[in-house]
Design a protein that fits this description.
Layout (H helix, E strand, L loop, with lengths): L26 H6 L12 H15 L1 E5 L2 E5 L1 H9 L2 E5 L2 E5 L5 H13 L4 E2 L5 E2 L27 E2 L2 H6 L9 E2 L7 E5 L5 H15 L14 E6 L2 H16 L26 E2 L11 E3 L1 E5 L2 E5 L4 E6 L4 H5 L9 E4 L8 H9 L11 E7 L7 H8 L15 E3 L17 H16 L4 H10 L18 H12 L4 H4 L1 E7 L7 E5 L23 E3 L17 E6 L13 E7 L13 E7 L5 H14 L7 E3 L5 H9 L8 E5 L6 E8 L6 H15 L2 E2 L2 E2 L7 H9 L7 H6 L2 H11 L3 H4 L7 H6 L6
Parallel strand pairs: 6-7, 9-17, 9-18, 10-15, 10-16, 16-17, 22-25
Antiparallel strand pairs: 1-2, 3-4, 5-8, 11-12, 12-15, 13-14, 19-20, 19-21, 21-24, 22-23, 23-24, 26-27, 28-29
Length: 761
């Protein structure tokens, strides 16, 4: 019996079962302790006051709360007063300082716990130093921090318990004697995870050069941001860059205007050099500036460094992107979109530790709905101890439920009314249950999770642009546009015409194209050949090139749909080679989506007609070889093997494209190969073609629905066919002759080139 998507409501106590959810008193008073000082740089008190503020931001402070004292991490004050985020209101984007809520307190505490917090200098009763458990083995000079003024052993408290507790006195500076740990945070959208860990985590580390308290000599630090999708990690770094540039504004303590002779940015502004773009290992973003000393120019600065890595789907290159370096902090943005996260995590384990200790932290953040198909992320989250991650609740990473992210249920001190927020989302779910499409409830649960299980529901994998697909789907459905774009045709062999094939347009009363996905019992399965761009429209100088289109084909094997069989899916895509001649690059010219009532061979016969109708493109029929024996057999029998693509390969460690002259079709041998192709397909779907994204031009409703609902472990025949397109484009790039005459091809990104490095043999 399967699991229902309508589960019993999760217990509200699960949100806070590990520690009491923090309550804040006098938030305004807390944050006022970190206000920037506005003085002229020549004022004798300028450096004194900024140095004092720096001490607060590094050490943190103790502040009165509920009649006692609460430790306030300095990075929380830094985030609130010296960082900038971009917010949207009434469709207008504007820059603001972040709101501080209970959630940001938690993020700050978890960060310093992960970095090795071990108590405070003036605490004469308690320690969080785990060395106390092996006290007898410690050296004498290390014992002082573990012994009270009366010579007794201090009582041990867990760091998290200590940090969340109220104390009787100001206990001084924080200590960081514990080994660092890792941290994994997954959950609802809108919780500020990305901004918090980008600015309160990475930017803070760079600004204060990894300092843990103000008595530690300032040195330098090395941090890293990465993702399996470069766009995600780039967005995170852009947040840091913007926030740093905003420190040139007066509100943050800058004096004057940039360009003035007496201009001084905020003392916490970072003068950075180098590149922050992906794979910057040879030219990292480094804290330094070039100044003139005497007659020469010199680079000065603390040299704290940010690296930006792509954890691509190339197993070796992606997993070892940081190998050989040393990092004090690594942040994985949208960790669930990194297919190789186990390999990356294992490789980077050596980057954040020595043989005897871990000194840096790996921090993964992710959004529910972008992770459900990445089993590696789920495994790390549900087995945090195995990966030295902080443990929460009943043995998981930190789960962020939707009620804790909603600003509408926070009071003036940032405290969440959990009961009201919880009831609000329960009501939303009850409304979602009433929808005719079960996907509505799935999406609600996945994007606004109330339990950990909600995060693992089926839906978008994050591999393909589902949001863009959803918008295109709505556009096609409006006024039944999808029914009026293409023509259903019947193709007939005819030796009397040049093409060898004639066609008859089927009237709408007769045609039964497949529009829906998933198929319902009343949907047709035979389908129709649909023509969207006629071969006549693809002629160049009056002739149809024999490579005017690229054919993509997903074979099916079983004739029985109810016994695991699938649909056949075939596409004719306009070759971008002829863009300069006015042909509509990358557009779908025709589709053949069907399960033929007379079996696989009959389907292949119709597909053969379609191929010939568009000019029999040599070596331009792309299909998955490990599923295409019957299709290849059909083509071989007709002595048309010249139509089939040669097997693509990539030389080990090189971007040099080669192909096997004896084998046809491409091989998808494992998940890595599949993800590689999907990454390439995503890039193509989001490519600009004539002022629109390619996905916005797709005419086939069935295809759009498959892209929107795609799951790695499902049967998505249209996507399986389209995934061969990145390989076909690489073939064209490498083997097109007379490029000057035919026009320059659209360039696939360098990142796609790198993703396509693995061999598919």
């Amino acid at each position: 019996m399967g699991t229902s998507i309508v589960e019993s409501a999760p217990n509200l106590s699960l949100y806070t079962e590990d520690v009491d959810w923090i309550k804040i008193e006098d938030l305004k008073g807390v944050l006022s302790q970190f206000e920037p000082v506005h003085l002229h740089p020549d004022d004798p008190q300028y450096k004194v006051q900024w140095n004092g503020l720096r001490t607060k931001l590094v050490d943190g402070i103790f502040y009165p709360q509920f009649g006692k004292m609460r430790y306030i991490p300095g990075r929380l004050g830094y985030y609130s007063k010296f960082c900038t985020i971009v917010d949207t209101k009434d469709k207008v984007r504007y820059e603001i300082t972040p709101d501080i809520r209970d959630l940001e307190f938690h993020f700050a505490y978890y960060l310093i716990e992960a970095l090795g917090f071990s108590g405070c200098t003036n605490d004469d009763k308690y320690t969080c130093d785990r060395r106390i458990h092996r006290f007898n083995k410690l050296k004498i000079d290390a014992q002082a921090e573990l012994i009270t003024s009366n010579g007794k052993l201090k009582e041990f408290r867990e760091p998290r318990e200590y940090l969340f507790s109220l104390h009787d006195d100001d206990l001084g500076q924080p200590l960081y004697k514990n080994d660092a740990s890792n941290l994994l945070v997954l959950g609802a959208r809108g919780g500020g995870k990305s901004y918090s860990f980008a600015l309160m985590g990475v930017k803070y580390e760079l600004t204060f050069h990894g300092a843990r308290n103000s008595d530690r000599p300032i040195g330098k630090t090395s941090v890293e941001i990465g993702s399996g999708q470069v766009s995600k990690s780039s967005e995170l770094i852009d947040k840091i860059v913007l926030s740093n540039e905003c420190l040139k504004k007066e509100k943050f303590g800058a004096y004057g205007e940039e360009g003035d002779d007496d201009f001084e940015p905020c003392p916490f502004y970072m003068w950075m050099d180098g590149s922050y773009r992906v794979n910057n290992q040879q030219n990292p973003w480094i804290q330094q500036k070039t100044v003139k000393k005497g007659k020469s120019w010199k680079k000065i600065g603390r040299k704290s460094t940010l690296y930006h890595s792509s954890y691509s789907t190339n197993k070796k290159e992606g997993a070892e992107a940081s190998a050989g370096g040393r990092r004090n902090m690594i942040v994985y943005e949208e960790i669930g979109l990194t297919a190789l996260i186990k390999e990356v995590w294992g490789s980077n384990n050596a980057v954040v530790r020595t043989d005897s200790e871990q000194y840096g932290s790996q921090i993964g953040i992710g959004t529910s709905g972008n992770i459900e198909l990445i089993q590696s992320t789920k495994h790390i989250f549900t087995h945090p101890k195995d990966y030295n991650c902080l443990i929460f609740g009943k043995g998981n990473g930190f789960f962020l439920p939707a009620p804790l992210t909603n600003k509408d249920f926070k009071d003036e001190n940032g405290n969440t009314n959990l009961e009201e927020a919880y009831e609000y989302y329960i009501k939303r779910r009850e409304e979602a249950k009433m929808a005719s499409d079960p996907q509505v409830l799935i999406a609600e649960r996945m994007n606004y999770p109330l339990s950990i299980e909600d995060m693992w529901l089926g839906g978008s994998s994050g591999y393909l642009p589902d949001k863009e697909a959803e918008l295109r789907e709505k556009e096609l459905i409006a006024n039944n546009l999808y029914e009026n774009i293409g023509q259903a045709v019947e193709l007939v062999w005819d030796s009397k015409v040049d093409s060898g094939v004639t066609y008859r347009i089927k009237p709408k009363s007769e045609a039964k194209p497949i529009y829906n996905w998933p198929l319902s019992p009343n949907d047709p399965t035979h389908g129709e050949i649909m023509i969207y761009i006629h071969p006549e429209k693809l002629k160049v100088n009056g002739l149809l090139p024999n490579d005017a289109v690229i054919f993509l084909h997903d074979p099916y094997v079983s004739d029985e749909l109810d016994k695991g069989g699938s649909l056949g899916a075939s596409y004719a895509i306009v070759n971008p080679k002829y863009e300069s001649f006015g042909l509509p690059s990358y557009q779908i010219a025709a589709t053949w989506i069907s399960r033929h009532p007379h079996g696989v061979d009959a389907y292949n016969e119709e597909f053969e007609k379609l191929i010939q109708f568009y000019g029999n493109p040599v070596r331009n029929v792309w299909y998955e070889a490990n599923r295409g024996d019957r299709f290849k057999g059909h083509i071989t029998k007709k002595k048309k093997n010249y139509l089939l693509c040669l097997r693509p390969q990539f030389e080990q460690g090189q971007y040099i494209y080669t192909r096997n002259a004896t084998q046809t079709g491409y091989v998808v041998s494992n998940q890595i190969a599949k993800v590689t192709l999907l990454d390439g397909l995503r890039d193509l779907l989001l490519m600009d073609v004539g002022g629109k994204l390619l996905i916005e031009t797709i005419p086939c409703l069935f295809t759009i629905k498959q892209i929107r609902q795609f799951k790695m472990d499902g049967n998505f025949d249209g996507v399986s066919a389209l995934q061969g397109l990145p390989l076909a484009i690489k073939e064209i790039e490498h083997y097109t002759s007379n490029r000057q005459q035919t026009g320059v091809l659209h360039s696939i990104s360098k990142n796609l080139v790198k993703r396509l490095r693995p061999s598919y043999t």
